[in-house]
Amino acid sequence: MDRVNSGMKGLDEILNGGLPKGRTILVVGSPGSGKTTFVMQFLASGAKAGEPGLYVSLDEKPERLKADLYSFGWDLDGLEQNGKLTFIDATQLRRPAHHIGQGSVEEGAVGLTIPELTLGSLVRTIKRVSAEEATQRVAVDPITSLMLRYPEEPKRRRALLMFFDALESTGCSCIVTSELRTSMLERRFQIEEYLSHGVVLLHTMVHDGNVIRAVQVEKMRGISHDAQLRPYQIGKSGIEVFPKDRVF
Amino acid sequence: MDRVNSGMKGLDEILNGGLPKGRTILVVGSPGSGKTTFVMQFLASGAKAGEPGLYVSLDEKPERLKADLYSFGWDLDGLEQNGKLTFIDATQLRRPAHHIGQGSVEEGAVGLTIPELTLGSLVRTIKRVSAEEATQRVAVDPITSLMLRYPEEPKRRRALLMFFDALESTGCSCIVTSELRTSMLERRFQIEEYLSHGVVLLHTMVHDGNVIRAVQVEKMRGISHDAQLRPYQIGKSGIEVFPKDRVF
Amino acid sequence: MDRVNSGMKGLDEILNGGLPKGRTILVVGSPGSGKTTFVMQFLASGAKAGEPGLYVSLDEKPERLKADLYSFGWDLDGLEQNGKLTFIDATQLRRPAHHIGQGSVEEGAVGLTIPELTLGSLVRTIKRVSAEEATQRVAVDPITSLMLRYPEEPKRRRALLMFFDALESTGCSCIVTSELRTSMLERRFQIEEYLSHGVVLLHTMVHDGNVIRAVQVEKMRGISHDAQLRPYQIGKSGIEVFPKDRVF
Amino acid sequence: MDRVNSGMKGLDEILNGGLPKGRTILVVGSPGSGKTTFVMQFLASGAKAGEPGLYVSLDEKPERLKADLYSFGWDLDGLEQNGKLTFIDATQLRRPAHHIGQGSVEEGAVGLTIPELTLGSLVRTIKRVSAEEATQRVAVDPITSLMLRYPEEPKRRRALLMFFDALESTGCSCIVTSELRTSMLERRFQIEEYLSHGVVLLHTMVHDGNVIRAVQVEKMRGISHDAQLRPYQIGKSGIEVFPKDRVF
Amino acid sequence: MDRVNSGMKGLDEILNGGLPKGRTILVVGSPGSGKTTFVMQFLASGAKAGEPGLYVSLDEKPERLKADLYSFGWDLDGLEQNGKLTFIDATQLRRPAHHIGQGSVEEGAVGLTIPELTLGSLVRTIKRVSAEEATQRVAVDPITSLMLRYPEEPKRRRALLMFFDALESTGCSCIVTSELRTSMLERRFQIEEYLSHGVVLLHTMVHDGNVIRAVQVEKMRGISHDAQLRPYQIGKSGIEVFPKDRVF
Amino acid sequence: MDRVNSGMKGLDEILNGGLPKGRTILVVGSPGSGKTTFVMQFLASGAKAGEPGLYVSLDEKPERLKADLYSFGWDLDGLEQNGKLTFIDATQLRRPAHHIGQGSVEEGAVGLTIPELTLGSLVRTIKRVSAEEATQRVAVDPITSLMLRYPEEPKRRRALLMFFDALESTGCSCIVTSELRTSMLERRFQIEEYLSHGVVLLHTMVHDGNVIRAVQVEKMRGISHDAQLRPYQIGKSGIEVFPKDRVF
User: Fold this and answer.
1) Whole-prediction pTM value?
2) Which residues are CB-contacts of B238 (< 8 A; sequence separation ≥ 6)?
3) What is the pLDDT of residues F30-52, one digit of tens each?
């Protein structure tokens, strides 16, 4: 199976090569675990090596993200200007008339009418842009809000499968992020973990009063990998993984 | 990224500078953990340094809060008189006719008609007042009651994003407080934690029969920070954080 | 902030003075933890010192309570006769025709029609009696049944706030008791804990096969206090708190 | 407060006397913990001392119970014949036409029509019989099925209060049994525990692979008691409590 | 109380004799714990000693079960031919037209129409066959599917009581199996455990990485028994219980 | 009972022979535990030995799976060409008009119309193909999506029984995979575990910061087996089980 560098040397070591080329994998993590940093590092390192990347942002505006990640020194603006990095602001796929604070909102005890993104429009946009930009790497961050539209498990399952199918049809190497519901190592699995080609977990654990960050490749089809919890840090240049260390 | 002093030296050390300027962060804590003290200390220290602050109170009347926090010696009344601190009593956005104990209440087994605050009116008020007062710091304490109006997760997610957008549009450095649902370090994450730019957790833990207060910067986009649990105390002058100590 | 003696010397030590005068605090505890003993001791000690008290009983008839607490030697009947202690039997605010066992009850698989207390009538009664009796201390024990009338969290939140407002409007120092839902130190917080001015927890824990009673001041706005778990006992004269001891 | 012997010497020691006379207490336990043995021992010892007892059985037919408890040697049949013990078979308060296996049952996917006991009829029966038999001790075993008729907590609360009121109006010393929902020491409290005058818990715990039976007086209003977990056994003559021993 | 041999010597020792004759007890266990082996061993040993047995199978076809248990060497076919063992295939009480895979099934998103067994028809069948065959021992394995027809607890409670009554009316010694919902020793009790005359738990625990099988007599009315967890194994000839050993 | 080699020597040792011939067993595991690898190794080893196998894929397209498992060196394409291995793409049993991203999708807040597989059509297909190909081994991976169509437990129970019946009617040795809901050894059992002839659990546990893979034969009717947790690894040639080792 062909590989692509993740942009994190230690992770590539854990994977005995890198992420699977042309496949879609899932990165799951708790708040602050570094999901966005992870995927941006993936895209930025690919972009620097000449592989155009596409970042689809569902919750945060790209401008703000670029400012947030500025200190890592990846020069995201520069890569964007060179056409090596494209940002899709999926937070803006809204019906124009509905903005809170401007008077024309329907407010009532039952609920605010809030505009929504649809799976179909997102997929069409991703396919179009990745074709136009000859994209090789795609990140969708996070898919949680999309999946909330399908509260019943059978529909969510199928929506996820169709979404993963659509991403794979682009031929790009894709990473999709998802929110961990609970902080526990002993937890309830999320459907996405079963349906993904690969799953990387970003844990934040407390052990003996210490906060420990650990990455775990839970699953990576077709790739023989180290299954252990390995410590990682979010340092000055991004995420650094320590493939030879134990968590405690 | 520009910074603003939190008003807590130890916390600024953990953050390698201070809170992110112009951004909105979340402070989550259990009852008695010091959320209100935290945000008031943030506003008061800014106000003393010439940065006007705005405190939006959703559950407690400002007069009572000022009395409660009097012993810390921040002279909140003085700052208010000098226009350095403004209080919005959001507990009063009610329909005037409905007060319990005065006879005209609809009471029945199904429920009392209780007036409600709306997200839209709150946002408009915050924008207006912060413009009028040239506010630089804003605190909204707590957002829990607002979010309860959106019981379905997709709507709550979008309401939060729009609320955070609205706060950021003021250009102020904002802190929003939220209630921790359970006391456990091993817990279910709240949506706000994923959608915020930064999250500070105020834990109250019991270890070996000792009650221990610990602050943890769970997330702070764009800022390299210490991720560890650090002890803090609510002392005579406010919250004091011990960035070099371990919790146990 | 002015203080009033709690009637428990050890607790006043933990609070560096006593309970906040004119405020409403919450006492939460498991079955048998001593909630009723706590509030009655508070009222009795105040009454002995000339501060009239008002005890509002929602589940248990005052006559029975006085008999139950007789052995502590507080002479509740005597205090009542001197007008220093008043008892409101809120268990009797019922529609007269509905008593089980007397034939005129609607019984069916769907449910028995059981009369109910309303928040409004209770508040009006408390205000009236406290004014008439020049009350300085009030206890409402427990508020659980009142709050069950508001199963939806937003309404419950507002009902609690309005109830606390009403109690504070009397100008009295008030204690409200509430039932802990689970026995665990690691637990789900109750709304009342967030909305109260102060919270005292009465824990019953099992450690190494020993049953241990511990009091914890979880929160007390405006008062610098000891936050630790401290052992207490229900002895011959009432509750005794040991502020210098550790639980284990 | 006057006392009555429980029939278990060790328990009377824990209670510094015995159970409260004329009051209703609750015994809560897991399956096999000995709830029925407990209350029958209470009634039998009272009956032997000349205090007539009344046993109200809701799940099990009295004939079968007497056979089950035969080996303890309390001569329940003899006591019954002397009028010292009366059994109410509350399992028989059914509409006569509905018996499964005899053809006239409505069966369908939605549910079987099963006859039910009502709270009102049970209370009337208890009052009548206890008056006729000059009863001094009453046991109701278990109340669980009665309480299931009130799934909503406010109604259940009031039904329980009215039931306890009705039992206390008989003037007898009463014990009501209830089923523990979970086996854990760390558990969710049941409403009955808050509303009862006293609560005795019969735990079955597993510690280091050993099954340990422990009795705990969680609550006993008006009585100063030992609050610890104390071991007990179901021996040849009934329940034996060891008030001086520790569980492990 | 008269006894019958369980077919497991170690268990008879724990029970100080054997199972209660003419009563119905419950065996609860996790998957693979040996519930079916347990009841078949009970029936087979009785059948060998001349006590005819009746096995009612609700989930598995008798032919397949006999093949599954063949290796224990109980010669179930032989016993059946001699009329010492009868098998009721309760999996076949279905409406004939509904079989999946044969075309006449109603399939849709809402659900498949699946035929069901009714409690009444099962009881009539058991009574009839046990009378015809002069049965002395009965096993019903498992009752779970029957009880699922009564999702509401009050109805389920009564259905169980009526079912146990019906079994006891046959005069046979009966064992009913039930599925443990969770694997934990600290668990939520099932209604059947409270309503049965006796309960034997078959635990599969993991301790220090070892899988341990333990039998526990949780309850056995009228019989003084060992309450401890005792190890058991499923060996070549069936279940073997070690009444003198500790689990770890 | 006749046996078939599992393709994993260590597992055959645990089973004292191999899997039961002609029966259907269940393999349950967490994400990344190797369920698909397990069943494919079972089919591939059988195919190599001349026993034709049938793989029914419900979530992943066969082409992609073959690519994923390529590195194990089982030559799945070769076996397929020789007619020793057949793949059913059950992901394609969809109504043709419904594909997201192509315009004719009904999208709305309520939900996307997503086509579904039916149990009946799947069973008919399996029977037909296994007859045509003289199949001896069948794998269905995973059954989770099928079972989600029956949210009510009684219907799910019967659907599973009918599905297992249908598989057994083929006369093949079958393995069905299922998703573990939670990662805990202390967990809630799934219905399939009770209804299957045999259950193999693939655990991924964290112990002392180490990720440990363990296989456990929870149940295997008719076969005397080792019940312990045994470590396994996913190595270069597939799953390797270590029947003599302890997990820690």
Assistant:
1) 0.88
2) B7, B8, B37, B41, B72, B74
3) 999 999 999 999 999 999 999 99
